[in-house]
């Protein structure tokens, strides 16, 4: 009996001695000073800076300024925001799953008037915020000194001060990273890093100067500090701007290059729910919105290789079908594929086929004589045709999409478009809208002698440029 009691006591003592396991969620106790607001909201970033934030929780503020935010559900950490109901007063904090902290916030003196307890990481973050305030004021003075430099010597001296000052910020972050490895704050600072290109001349193996060294070095090291395995970085305002600079300024805007880079990035974030979701969404939207010729092929690639293979897990079937439908409409007429034949009735009363046109290049234009844009673009295109394109072996296959036959023929006669093959589809039997993705006008394609699509969504100002680019590439390939 005594032994049993001893065993029970030992088990009880052991249980008491064990540290309590941290619970999911968060506990945030806040004492506000200097506000009469009655509500506070907890929000977080999602890839973008302000004003794009997402509210996740709220709580009432009592008459003494006290409030308490609590959750028992697992959260994804990141930079969160405590926002008062005036929608103007706010401050940032670092929040991780299982955090339990206290904050005193004097809203009359933000960011200086924020004090944290039981959150070492936020204390460091707050020190950094305060450092930035002083750093910014110092930088402004140095920039003013640089602008007002009276002599070259003064200008060089002011510039050296700016460089030295900038290193202070870099060194501050590096010190935090070195002393706080694997923390959210350290990963944020690493994500902020941009490559510093080594100074001096650099040479290729053949001894010639490498004029692209700075670009290649910067691009190749652009993501060095970004931890693609830390999903919390999506809850910061950093990722969107990093994606924008990389894909819209550093990646060569050709289809193959863009596809390769998209695959690379998505492979890096594979397995991270939010980073992968944002990356696939951002890449697809960026490509879909692009005005660069040929990017529709990249859009089709992303839909076929990611959306259609179940990677867009957040989309409903209805939304997925929108992507599928769009890709199916674009796929037949992406650059590099053979254009579909078109058989229609001509303005001369005869039947005509796109494939019957024998030319080095064929311009296919879909237009409407009642369309204001077409009324300007068609004559402008004909002027370029007569001045330059005809000599390059270009012929024009012109498709009327809307408008009355009489008005169409009058427009052809008035603008002397008789050298073109002018056709229309009175029986609506050609399916040209689907084959050529024609849902607005004008739409212009450039085909080569094999009727392979070499350019699309063109206008009179760039057709000749595309032809010259094709010919330069062909000439280069023959060398």
Got a strand count? Answer: 15
CATH architecture title of the largest domain: 3-Layer(aba) Sandwich
Largest sheet: 7 strands, mixed
Give the overall silhouette: elongated
Helix-strand pattern:
HEEEEEEEEHHHHHHHHHEEEHEHEHEEH
Q: Helical region count?
A: 14
Query: Which percent range describes the beta-strand content?
Result: 15-25%
The class by helix and strand makeup works out as alpha+beta
Distance between the termini: 98 Å
Q: Remind me, CATH topology of the largest domain?
A: Glutaredoxin
| Highest-level CATH class of the largest domain | Alpha Beta
Uncertain parts: 1-21
Average per-residue pLDDT, rounded, comes to 92
Number of domains: 4
Find the CATH superfamily of the largest domain.
Answer: Glutaredoxin
Radius of gyration: 32 Å
Helix content: 40-55%
Query: Which strand order does the major sheet show?
Result: 10-9-13-12-11-14-15
Please give a structural write-up.
By secondary structure, the chain is of the alpha+beta class. The chain folds into four domains: 26-113, Carboxypeptidase-like, regulatory domain (Immunoglobulin-like); 128-192; 213-333; 343-478, 3-Layer(aba) Sandwich (Glutaredoxin), CATH 3.40.30.10. Helix content is 43%, strand content 19%. The protein is built from 14 helices and 15 strands. A seven-stranded mixed beta sheet has the order 10-9-13-12-11-14-15, with helices on one face. A four-stranded mixed beta sheet has the order 4-1-7-8, covered by helices on one side. Helix 7 (255-269) packs parallel to helix 9 (295-305) and helix 8 (273-289) runs antiparallel to helix 9 (295-305). The longest helix is centred in the first third of the chain and has 28 residues, at 120-147. The N and C termini lie far apart (98 Å).
